[in-house]
Amino acid sequence: MARRKQIYEGKAKVLFEGPEPGTIVQYFKDDATAFNNKKRGVITGKGVLNNRISEHLMIKLGEIGVPTHFVRRLNMREQLVREVEIIPLEVVIRNVAAGSLSQRFGIAEGTPLPRSIVEYYYKNDALNDPMVTEEHITAFGWATTQDLDDMMSLALRINDFLLGLFLGIGIRLVDFKIEFGRLWNGDDMQIVLADEISPDSCRLWDIKSNEKLDKDRFRRDLGQVEEAYQEVARRLGILPEGGPRDLKGPATMQ
């Protein structure tokens, strides 16, 4: 078997050339980072769980008509996705005050927001992913007004669906980060949901106890990080039988 060609390695994933044109293999790592890579660690089995959780949520969103880059899961740590032109923005949807929002405005963490708030951040680690406005985005050419309209519409639709899905399993969706990409088909372009949706990119709290079931357990040294990720997967009904088995790699294309 020929060794696959690595395209990119990020904090939580490695991207490889896909088996056919226009596809990419997305490999989920156990590496964990926080505070713009200032804190690093390993969450055992995280890559396996995030692969399964993101797959599950992408499929569910696809079923309600949300366009995504997801094609199929390949194995315990890898999934096949469509190659897209990533828009250099992190779109954050907030339903409950937490994290930087609480710090910026002095709002007690856990305070329900009057309505869902959508924020944009420029994806640039060297600049600490600064918060930006629509004026910045369109002026610097990161996205057009139409792109932003599409992204906002999809973000709110995704939020509405995920709020209900997580509520049904006793989890409060406090906030989450998503990314979008441009999927090209000749001269036709469509904005699609890309990257991942997992406890790495969401704040998920148990509805009854407010126990954190996400990466904040790693950020804040709360312990039982692996167990929190497993609990999310268990409630979604997708915890791999026997627990999050490992898959060593990545080395070759299957």
Share of residues in strands = 25-35%
Based on Cα principal axes, name the global outline. Answer: globular
Instruction: Give the biggest sheet.
Output: 7 strands, antiparallel
Instruction: Provide the CATH top-level class of the largest domain.
Output: Alpha Beta
Number of domains: 2
Separate helix tally: 6
In CATH, the homologous superfamily of the largest domain goes by the name ATP-grasp fold, B domain
Could you please say which CATH topology of the largest domain applies here?
Answer: D-amino Acid Aminotransferase, Chain A, domain 1
User: Would you list the SSEs in sequence order as H and E?
Assistant: EEEEEHEEEEHEEHHEEEHH
CATH architecture of the largest domain: 2-Layer Sandwich
- Amino-to-carboxy terminus distance: 8 Å
Chain-averaged pLDDT: 92
Oligomer: single chain
Instruction: Give the proportion of residues in helices.
Output: 25-40%
Spatial extent as radius of gyration: 18 Å
Which stretches of 5+ consecutive residues score pLDDT under 50? 249-254
Characterization of the model:
The structure is a single chain. The protein folds into two domains: 92 residues, Phosphorylase Kinase, domain 1 (2-Layer Sandwich); 122 residues, D-amino Acid Aminotransferase, Chain A, domain 1 (2-Layer Sandwich). Helix content is 28%, strand content 32%. The protein contains six helices and 14 strands. A hairpin with a 5-residue loop joins β2 and β3. α1 runs parallel beside α6. The longest helix has 23 residues. The chain is globular, with a radius of gyration of 18 Å. 34% of the residues are buried.
